[in-house]
Design brief:
single chain, 509 residues, mainly alpha, Neurolysin, domain 3, 3-stranded mixed β-sheet, 20 helices
């Protein structure tokens, strides 16, 4: 008995040493996150050289702490320890990161960090000037660095699969490809039927010009209505909306275009979904994997659930339109039905991913996925990207960009070196539909709650079944526990076929 107690005490001490170490690593990473937020939101234009060095230094410190011999020794001691489920999950997650990062030389980590910090303003200027050639050398360098990074982690694996695992480590690339292929195959016929439909939707319900200050006030109304915790968050603007932070400080950014009021509303709701997930992580788990989000597909499911299943629903507009009219009296003649139709119109000429409708959006993702996969594999040269991009848009969406700014320069992701990120958007949409269906199975139809602006039951279900677990479970385990089944596109396809079949009077849907 005494021996067992001594062993348990030793294991506890070892685990606590590991936890202290990873809390320090987490704090370094979170500090870097604040610097990145600052760079994209408020940093002066000429601040980049210093910021690049600051981020590189923090990245280096975090990498050194994680890959130090002491970390490996603690993990090795805990491999055979009798840990409870939560502690075992922490060890599993730290081990995964340790194994990947110890494979990568420190010099390469620092070079990638500094290159991506400098890439952001280069991409921004290239987009503003519609000059892909100005960004091309940086993109070439990032592609080369990421290939090298993947080769260090697993020289025998598909390098794109290795990079995809950075964002979704427990759903393999084959799963992503299968989902994307199914969406592409089954959505094309639905989109074609919509294009042939004679239904006359109120697509101009939000036509007009709207001042930025008034749009910001309405964005705050949206966040108030959904229950955003202002004591742990804030709203700002950024060229490419995003959210970032921790359960104690989860910030939202959006953007305003004077002729696109609806876009600012849906963008704000989308980023609320991300921040709401972050705020739902357990406070006591801060600094450990138990207080971190379960990777990007799950994160994206939260933003898509709130944006599409809530924010684009007719009950939501029955609730929110009176609030919008208080800010914009010019909407007095718009009915909830017309607002709902405008929020769900399917565009036949959309070039911009973040402005895409709920259906064609996934073809935007397929295009990016195919291009970046070929870039990393070496089957596509960087110089060929604009031409291939434009050809794919013409083939898949029937439109052709006239400029690189509205074509291959529109997204920020490649300037961050985020190759493998894009598939998680579609995986998240699929999972959002699956989670929403499971929530309604348990709570009943949610339309009345949404119509009344009551979101506590839905949010409580998400907190209980998704948010509070952090990274305790792998993605497949979390999905199975929350919904009773493995990841499937069935619910998403049923949802869009029913919704858009009704909207566009389609007999076959």
């Amino acid at each position: 008995m005494a021996t067992d107690q001594a062993q348990n005490t030793g294991e506890t001490d070892t685990y606590e040493q590991l936890e202290t170490r990873i809390e320090r690593i987490s704090n370094v990473s979170n500090a870097a996150g604040i610097l990145r937020w600052d760079q994209e939101v408020v940093m002066p234009d000429e601040g980049t050289p210093a910021r690049a060095q600051q981020l590189s230094t923090l990245s280096s410190i975090g990498h050194e702490l994680l890959t130090a011999d002491e970390t490996g020794e603690l993990l090795e001691q805990l491999e055979s320890a009798d840990l409870d489920d939560e502690r075992a999950a922490v060890v599993r997650e730290v081990r995964r990161r340790y194994d990947r990062e110890t494979s990568v030389p420190q010099e390469l980590v620092e070079e990638i960090s500094e290159t991506t910090a400098n890439a952001h303003p280069t991409w921004k200027r290239a987009k503003e000037n519609d000059d892909f050639e100005a960004f091309a050398p940086t993109l070439e360098k990032l592609v080369d660095l990421k290939r090298e990074y993947a080769a260090h982690i697993d020289p025998d694996a598909d390098p794109y699969a290795v990079l995809f695992a950075e964002y979704e480590p427990y759903l393999d690339l084959e799963t992503a490809e299968r989902v994307l292929e199914r969406l592409r195959d089954e959505l094309v016929s639905l989109i074609d039927a919509i294009e042939d439909s004679e239904a006359d939707l109120a697509t101009d319900a939000f036509a007009g010009e709207f001042e930025d200050d008034d749009q910001e006030a309405l964005a705050r109304d949206v966040l108030d209505s959904l229950g955003y915790d202002w004591d742990r968050g804030r709203l700002d603007t950024a060229p490419h909306p995003f959210s970032s932070g921790t359960q104690f400080d989860a910030r939202v950014t959006t953007r305003f275009e004077e002729d696109d009021l609806l876009g600012s509303i849906t963008s704000t709701i989308h980023e609320f979904g991300h921040a709401n997930y972050t705020l739902g992580l357990p406070d006591e788990g801060y600094g450990t994997p138990l207080g971190e989000a379960r990777d990007l597909s799950v994160h994206e499911s939260q933003s898509r659930l709130w944006e599409n299943h809530v924010g684009r629903s007719r009950p939501f507009w029955e609730h929110f339109l009176p609030i919008a009219r208080e800010r914009f009296p010019e909407l007095d003649d718009v009915s909830p039905a017309e607002a709902y139709e405008a929020a769900n119109q399917v565009y036949d000429d959309n070039l911009i991913r973040v402005e895409a409708d709920e259906l064609t959006y996934h073809l935007h993702i397929v295009i990016r996925f195919e291009i970046e996969r070929d870039l990393i594999s070496g089957d596509l040269e960087v110089s060929e990207v604009p031409q291939v991009w434009n050809d794919k848009y013409e083939e898949y969406l029937g439109v052709r960009p006239e400029t690189d700014a509205e074509g291959c320069l529109q997204d920020i992701h490649w300037s961050h070196g985020s190759f493998g990120y894009f598939p998680t958007y579609s995986l998240g949409s699929v999972l959002a539909a699956q989670l929403y269906a499971a929530a309604e199975d348990e709570l009943g139809d949610l339309d009345d709650d949404i119509r009344e602006g009551e979101f506590d039951d839905l949010n409580g279900w998400l907190r209980e079944n998704v948010h509070r677990h952090g990274k305790r479970f792998t993605t497949p385990e979390l999905i199975e526990r929350a919904t009773g089944e493995s990841l499937t596109a069935d619910h998403f396809l049923e949802y869009v076929e029913s919704k858009y079949g009704d909207l566009y009077d389609l007999d076959d849907y």
